């Protein structure tokens, strides 16, 4: 697991040789502080080979562990050792955090690797496993971090798609041979069918099966499942149906529609952005879209 965090720090540009040595020195100093913290609060904690301290509550455990491509839903509270709040999810509004397991390393990777579905834990991470020498907001550089986590659910891709079908009203959707779920929302049987090679204008909204924290143009933070929306195809940037320029599931759905029709679709990750994902979408992500054919010529 240490190699995962080493990669994370390198990718953030935190680990020059000097910085790494400084982090190690700070970690050694912090260990005494952590042990004092544990003793004062009468906690019984274990220490991993990486240097993380933890304790777990397994009473609610289902025994289910995460595999690559599973979605982990969890609540967390992150603080400094003096109790200063860094960040947290909102349990009252059930605004949980979700991560696709095995796609990238985050500050939650090591704690989550020690939890099964339904379990809770308290994790204390020295700077080398947290934010290193960086500082931001109320988090000083080389800070030791406490993270309290409860794993709400671990969902396979098939389970995520089943959840999305309920969330987006697609229980009776058609299942195509490729694995796409397809449901027409607006039908125009007398309109012209989209044909391969036509210049098509398509409006769309794309969503996850869960909400993610986002920031609007005014700087306000909010939760929303929507990861993108807009129009594909225009005079300046044409989209030709069946050209293969879009993800496979989107292309397939366009070819099933007539001009003016609208549909909702759920794509398994193999028909979406695959195992790699992109900057906005994690790898292994099944996705929901609403698409409408504006014109085709």
From TrEMBL:
One of its GO terms (molecular function) is peptidyl-prolyl cis-trans isomerase activity. Residues 69-155, 197-297 form the PPIase FKBP-type domain. Keywords: Isomerase, Repeat, Rotamase, Signal. The keyword Mitochondrion does not apply. Its EC number is 5.2.1.8. Residues 1-21 form the signal peptide. Gene3D superfamilies: 3.10.50.40. SUPFAM superfamilies: FKBP-like (SSF54534). This is Peptidyl-prolyl cis-trans isomerase. It comes from Aquirufa echingensis.
């Amino acid at each position: 697991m240490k190699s995962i965090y080493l990669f994370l720090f390198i990718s953030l540009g935190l680990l020059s040789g000097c910085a790494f040595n400084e982090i190690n020195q700070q970690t050694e100093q912090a260990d005494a502080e952590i042990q004092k913290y544990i003793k004062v609060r009468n906690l019984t904690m274990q220490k991993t080979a990486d240097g993380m301290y933890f304790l777990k509550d397994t009473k609610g455990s289902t025994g289910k562990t995460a595999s690559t491509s599973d979605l982990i839903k969890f609540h967390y509270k992150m603080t400094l050792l003096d109790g200063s709040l860094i960040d947290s999810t909102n349990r009252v509004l059930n605004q949980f955090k979700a991560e696709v397991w095995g796609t990238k390393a985050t500050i939650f990777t090591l704690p989550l690797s020690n939890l099964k579905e339904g379990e809770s834990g308290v994790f204390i991470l020295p700077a080398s496993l947290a934010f290193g020498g960086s500082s931001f907001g109320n988090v000083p550089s080389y800070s030791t971090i406490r993270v309290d986590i409860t794993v709400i659910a671990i969902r396979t891709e098939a389970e995520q798609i089943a959840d999305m079908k309920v969330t987006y009203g697609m229980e009776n959707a058609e299942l195509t041979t490729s694995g796409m779920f397809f449901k027409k929302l607006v039908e125009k049987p007398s309109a012209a069918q989209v044909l391969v090679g036509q210049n098509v204008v398509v409006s769309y909204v794309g969503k996850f099966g869960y909400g993610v924290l986002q920031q609007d143009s005014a700087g306000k933070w909010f939760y929303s499942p929507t990861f993108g929306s807009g129009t594909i195809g225009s005079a300046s940037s044409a989209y030709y149906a069946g050209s293969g320029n879009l993800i496979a599931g989107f292309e397939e759905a366009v070819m099933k529609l007539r001009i003016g029709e609208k549909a909702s679709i759920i794509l398994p990750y193999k028909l979406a952005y695959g195992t790699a994902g992109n900057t906005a979408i994690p790898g292994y992500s099944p996705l929901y879209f609403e698409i409408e054919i504006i014109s085709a010529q």
